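for the record, two folds in this file. i put them one after another cuz i was lazy. first one right below, seq on top, structure tokens after. the second one comes after a little note so u can tell where it starts
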Amino acid sequence: MNTNNSITNPNINAKSGLTGQGRVVILGAGESGVGAALLAQQKGFDVFVSDFGVIADHYKAMLERASIPFEAEKHTEESILNAVEVIKSPGIPATAPIIKKLVAKGIPVISEIEFAKRYTNAKTVCITGSNGKSTTSLLTYHILKNAGLNVGLAGNIGQSFAAQVASESYDWYVLEISSFMLDDMFEFKADIAVLLNITPDHLDRYDYKLENYAASKMRIIQNQTADDVFIYCADDEESLKALQTKQPLAKSYPFSIVQTVDQGAYLENNTIHILTEPNNELTMSISDLALQGKHNIYNSMASGIVAKVLELRNETIRESMGNFKNIEHRLEHVAKISGIDFINDSKATNVNSTWYALESMTSDVVLIMGGVDKGNDYNMLKDLVKSKVKAIVCLGKDNKRIHDAFEDDVDVIVNTFSAEEAAQIAFHLAKRGDAVLLSPACASFDLFKNYEDRGNQFKAAVREL
């Protein structure tokens, strides 16, 4: 087994906590990029921001207010290749021409998370996984905040980590960490690392190899020591496989709904048991959880272990897990019209997320799915589609692979090209007692700005019915 938990970047020289070390270039002027620019400026660097696309007006205004120079819709090489370090948006792949040129010149390319961590002594709870990381991050933050901890929420959710490091003084951060972020993190260490699951996602960025994507996810435990904590799902096949090649040094706590564990969390007789220390067990009926469905039992277990590791009171943990409200666009109930429930799960941008959504449905479903296919394997949905889905409404420019996957499993598959059209057709296909579920299993960029735009357009269309 490989017990070396440090993944180094040969182009990085340790700069921890240093200021004013020359020119820093930020690639990408979204939430993470602008936050990184503000922090870099605060620390005395000469900062330049470059975005190959259009910069949103409010981010332009932030850069202008801070007098940070920037460019949009291009990457001017002479303004970028003279950096001492580059902070890259997670959305920019390593194969982008400008990244290749930076690497060839030996200029370090890192993530906003890596950069920001140099300038804070706050402890971090870092949560990754193919599915459930937003929900688990928000639930964990909710529990910690209710318990009175001085805690911030950042990463792939909410306000930029770097921006908060520049302007706040938190003792703890809950960070939602994507594989794209992990790819550009080298010296960073999570005090508490959570790996929820590993299922095929974003394989187009990983040479269509699941083992490459899994290796990226395992970077969540890089640099951890025996003083740190690692929380993982003992029921997840790919996580267990990855752990055979990368053994954690941190104190490990598994969670499971099919077996008991000595330390960690398990399910028995519809009751969650969480214990991290002898004689201090938290128990809670799954019927009292705010988040319902099998996938959310896992999410609640992971958050509960974090809370127990931090020695929070059982009463506080139970109360928080019972009154939490889930995020927008994740199994969000929109309306009930003519006895038909409309549910917005636009955040389901991969097949596994859609599997979780269908698994939680208790009625017949008209499923709205489709968009930018990321190399999806729809086979895992077939049994649930056969048993629960009466019709599929495709929402995307190219729906051929959905037709090919499910034409033998449902009687009706219809193509649509707008949220309004999809909602109207789904409404006519459903009957009283059914659910219309938007759970696309695909990215949104063919017809929408992002999954939020897709979900918002769907909700607006439902309300017009």
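(here's the note) second protein begins now
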Amino acid sequence: MTSQDRPTPPSALNRDITDSLSALEDSDAEQLRAAASYLETLAAWAESTRDDEQGSDATADASVDEADDADGDVEYPADVPERASVTVKEIAGTTYHYYQWRDGDRIESKTVQR
């Protein structure tokens, strides 16, 4: 790529992001690569956060079926209603079951380490 073929930001970006990118245009290659690496890491984090927030009941049920016995019976703690949605997460080798349900106008939740 020659200096005449300088890339331009995608048109889909909002003005604030375009302005931020303009501030980077005169940076050296090392600084640009460091920023790009950070942005890739930030994008992966944003995706994982979005996935955690948008987890569907179907996904949660599939996770529970795999984690519990083969016939798909889920063991709910005594103080958790069977209508609760369940999300299973493994963090640092420890499995957690997150139960969440509605009780009138309130959302109740319980976390159980397995």
